[in-house]
Amino acid sequence: MKNLLFFVFVALSFLVSGQKTKVLVVDLGTPHDNSITFEKCKEFDGKEFRKCSESKWLSVKSRELIALRLINGNPLKYNYTIGGAPVTFFMNFNEFNNIFKLGKKQDSLVLLKHDSYTYKNLLEENKQLKDKLYDLDLFLDKFKLKNINRESLGEGFTKTRDSLFIALKTLNLEAELNHSSFEKGIYTFTSAQKKVIENIIKENIDKSQEMLKSFEKKYFFKNDFYTLPIDIQGKNADAIEFTIKRFDKETNQEDEAFVGKYKVWITGGLKIDISAGIFLTSLFDRQYETRDVAAGTALKEVYLKNHGQYDFAFGSTINTNFRLNSWIQPQVNFGAIFTQNQKFQMILGAGAILGREERWILSGGLSMGVVDRLADGFQNGGSYDLGTSGQIPMVKQFKFGHFIGITYNLSKVNTISMKPQ
Questions:
Q1: 3-state SS class at 363
Q2: What is the C-alpha to C-alpha distance for residues 102 and 91, in angstroms, rounded to an integer?
Q3: Regarding beta strands 260-267 and 59-61, do their DSSP bridges make them parallel or antiparallel, or are they unpaired?
Q4: Residues 154-196 pLDDT 10s
Q5: Which of 283, 286, 285, 362 is nearest to 321 (CA)?
Q6: What does DSSP assign to residue 254?
Q7: Three-state DSSP class for residue 163
Q8: Which residues contact 100 (CB under 8 A, 6 or more apart)?
Q9: 178: which of 17, 162, 239, 408 lies 20 to 30 Å off by Cα?
Q10: Over pLDDT 90: what percentage of the chain?
Q11: Cα–Cα distances in Å, from 247 out to 219, 221, 226?
């Protein structure tokens, strides 16, 4: 019992150590050497994490999970889809909170400024604030126009965005503190002054809050996107397929020049397909003829017709191939063929699959079936009295032979679609 538990533990450890998630990173910006590549990762070998083995091909092992990551796009200009499903670039709340804390650093400076206010210059301060908000609003329009015409946003976008957010938050705080100063000194104003200052303060507060909310909604997002990992183990598939498209955010028109269709080939495990083609089989009916032995006798010599070593046949096979990331893959097959003499035979063999998208299969092996043979007591070259009918006695026997064949894979590349869950 202890030995059994030990082997079970070892087997489970092997399975755990071999399991990992591979993340395929697709750069939506300008193409470069590593526009599409697997993210560097680590795997657990039972004791510690070590670096995953690098792959030169877009391939994933059948026991692995796979996820997709999109980076360096421009959500301001485009909407993106994966396999027809929309991609949402959610707000990065951690980043947003960090920038919010940066904005907090400006609070103490503004508070000091307002503590030293004289209520006589409050109107002038609010007019200046109104001008600042107007200028900043113009700059935000330029910022939007600049980035909405870019294919990808890049690092400069984030730095400028953070600076603009701090500036916006500071002006919003100024507007709120102006209101506080106005409330404290309201008794020093005439009714006319009160109305003028109250209106401009309210206008500044409304404008700054509107700009702040709009800015947060538009520009605070994480410019990458992950799909959930998908499990491909046990799937009778050749590859994982995904299509990335982008649509103009204003017109919703597809950018047809951008469409990217990709396949990640699955390695390891078995794949079952069906193919059909032509065969040569060494197993076929033997045909005999007779000739007179001597004049005046009833004896006939039985001899075999020369039909060569092989018979021609058509047939179909079920192929089980071992998935390798290669243009040539080994396989075993079994199936049925139909010979020229209209006889069915079963075949069992092995061979190689050539190609990726369009696949030819070369195979050879064992053929078996029922064929015609001479009855017992008769042999090729013997002389016999065949009676008045003159027919050569034949019997049906189950025999084994061999075959070679070339077939075309009727199953196109079977793919698993990857799309956001």
A1: strand
A2: 18
A3: parallel
A4: 767 888 888 888 888 889 988 888 888 777 766 567 778 788 8
A5: 362
A6: B
A7: helix
A8: 169
A9: 162
A10: 20
A11: 19, 18, 19
281, 279, 278, 300: which is closest to 290 by C-alpha? Answer: 300
Q: How deeply is 400 buried, as exposed, middle or buried, from its count of CB atoms within 10 A (0-12, 13-18, 19+)?
A: exposed
What torsion do the CA atoms of 382, 385, 387, 391 make, to the nearest 10 degrees? 0
Residues present in the chain in total: 421
* Residue 335, both tokens: 């199936």
Nearest CA to 130 among 213, 190, 206? Answer: 206
Region class of 207: left (phi > 0), else alpha (psi between -120 and 50), else beta: alpha
Residue type, 378: F
**Tens digit of pLDDT for each residue in 76-134?**
888 888 888 888 765 544 544 454 444 444 444 444 444 444 556 778 888 889 999 99
Distance CA 54, CA 57 (A): 9
| pLDDT band (50, 70, 90) for residue 2 | low
What 3-state class would DSSP assign to 359?
coil
- pLDDT (tens digit per residue) in 4-53: 544 444 444 444 445 688 888 888 887 877 788 887 655 544 455 455 55
CA angle 356, 357, 358 (to 5 degrees): 95
